[in-house]
Amino acid sequence: MTVLTELKDKETIEAKNYINKVFETVKQRNPNESEFHQVVKEMFDSLVPVFAKHPVYMEQSILERIVEPERVITFRVPWVDDQGKVHVNRGFRVQFNSAIGPYKGGLRFHPSVNASIIKFLGFEQIFKNALTGQPIGGGKGGSDFDPKGKSDGEIMKFTQSFMLELFRHIGPDVDVPAGDIGVGRREIGYMFGQYKRIRGGYEAGILTGKGLEYGGSLTRTEATGYGTVYFVQEMLKEKGLSFTGSTVVVSGSGNVSTYAIEKALQLGAKVVACSDSDGYIYDPNGISLDTVKRLKEVERNRILEYVKEHPHAQYFEGCSGIWSIPCDIALPCATQNEIDESAAEMLVANGVKAIGEGANMPSTSEAINVFLRNNILFGPAKAANAGGVAVSALEMAQNSSRLSWTFEEVDAKLQHIMINIYRNSVKAAEDYGYSGNLIAGANIAGFKKAADAMIAQGVI
């Protein structure tokens, strides 16, 4: 063994020991927060060669600093339903890291929301936002409020109450929330109106995902779904593959899923399945996007209704079975951890060639190992679903300059950003011994950008 090899081994061991020590501290300080532990572990696993090569990150205690949110806000949200009954929900905002720019990340309204979920999403957002190349830091928020079955009036009352506390902590140069699961243009509109009423002024840049009538950006609705497909398209090109003629399965039927389906269809694919939280539909002739859009966006109905208009299609209760449908490309766009190890094994057995994560970390670590072990092209959420926040940053830029760009202009910028994210992830993977592993590549590229900004600003 040469002296150089011994030196490298020593540096690697030191880096592993440091990272393991920090991870143990994370678990002790954040007990019972399994989702947060999962995302931190997934990031840390990629960083050993980075710390071995750049010990300055250990000297500056970057990991200890970056895993600790700059601010965690929890608050009560009381509201009154249509029958006059008072309800109380819990609101959250985690302002995780502002080294690159103001905190940026969505608001999620869903019964599953808790501190662990919000910290998991906020931590992931730091590096996703860094990958976009836009000047935005990482944050996330939301509430355990369930918008399903609520009237427009109840939604308005809740969101107005939510904003009565949130307004104290946000601003165009401080923290700019957006939508996420359960928070669409309607909810953003109600919150924007309440913020404007409280502040007594028009600050268009305090929320993104707004309606076009009051400062929203063209292409924002489509951005996450389109961006996921643009990223997967780049992966496929490397192997001489494409969406043209491919069979695609997309989980979910919300905003991300709908526009992932739309772009995949535009590129010549046949999408045969999609889902909602109750079950999934399989249409061997190819999903009718017009029907899905009308059911989900206009009528706010369940996906079950699809088979009433398309009797040749089939509906199945439960969501996990959707991954048993043979496909060339799978786009999980519903929620976290929806593909487990057994679902991944089914996909591989049925000949899947590529996975593009449209949701936030929809594959478990065990599922990811199955894909990597079988050399399946894998686009991780941190990179593949960054299109939404990228266009949110473009919306902020338009608000700041009081301009409105065309759909084509924003879409071209989105494509450019997604291609750059892919290329930067590929290069980072190659530079640190993970050639072909886009999970490690995206983790490293995002981490280095945030960490270097932190070092440049001193101990903050």
TrEMBL record:
Cited SUPFAM superfamilies: Aminoacid dehydrogenase-like, N-terminal domain, NAD(P)-binding Rossmann-fold domains
PANTHER family per the UniProt record, alphabetical: NADP-SPECIFIC GLUTAMATE DEHYDROGENASE 1-RELATED
Name under which the protein is recorded: Glutamate dehydrogenase
Annotated TM spans: none
Domain Glutamate/phenylalanine/leucine/valine/L-tryptophan dehydrogenase C-terminal stretches: 217-458
Superkingdom: Bacteria
GO cellular component: cytosol
Annotated residues for binding of NAD(+): T224, N255
Annotated family: Belongs to the Glu/Leu/Phe/Val dehydrogenases family.
Active-site residues from the entry: K140
InterPro entries linked: Aminoacid_DH-like_N_sf, Glu/Leu/Phe/Val/Trp_DH, Glu/Leu/Phe/Val/Trp_DH_C, Glu/Leu/Phe/Val/Trp_DH_dimer, Glu_DH, Glu_Leu_Phe_Val_DH, NAD(P)-bd_dom_sf, NAD_bind_Glu_DH
SMART domains: ELFV_dehydrog (SM00839)
Gene Ontology process terms (BP): glutamate biosynthetic process
NCBIfam families: PRK09414.1
Annotated Pfam families: ELFV_dehydrog, ELFV_dehydrog_N
GO molecular-function term, one example from the UniProt record: nucleotide binding
Binding site for substrate: K104, Q125, K128, G179, S392
Subunit and interaction comment: Homohexamer.
Keywords, sorted A to Z: NAD, Nucleotide-binding, Oxidoreductase
Site feature location: Important for catalysis: D180
